[in-house]
């Protein structure tokens, strides 16, 4: 049974079929097999910083506890006024992508060899997945707060 294309895939097929006639193609999809645990430990975990050294969204935003908070927000808004609207469209799109992060992690957790069923698995792939998720979550938090503060 042939799998139906997703929403985006449907439009890609329409565009391609308007250029090239449709023809039967061999299904080249192969099962995903992540590199071995040792590879992940040697090549991925070495890239991770300790949690206490990871950047945080507030490192790049005005500090609400500071006396100059309102001035800093006004300055941020003045600088943001200079950005073209197209940039804000991209920032909103990026933020929406980051908001979908739980979907990405859930998908990764379905794959053999990468799965982290407990949320605290000591395997290299599980550690990497959690660290990657935390990093991406910080991106989303920063974009959300920047867009909120920039008005």
TrEMBL record:
Entry GO terms, CC: chloroplast stroma
Alphabetical list of InterPro entries matching this protein: Fatty_acid_desaturase-2, Ferritin-like_SF, RNR-like
GO biological process: fatty acid biosynthetic process
Assembly, per entry: Homodimer.
Protein name: Uncharacterized protein
Domain of life: Eukaryota
Pfam families: FA_desaturase_2
Keywords: Fatty acid biosynthesis, Fatty acid metabolism, Iron, Lipid biosynthesis, Lipid metabolism, Metal-binding, Oxidoreductase, Transit peptide
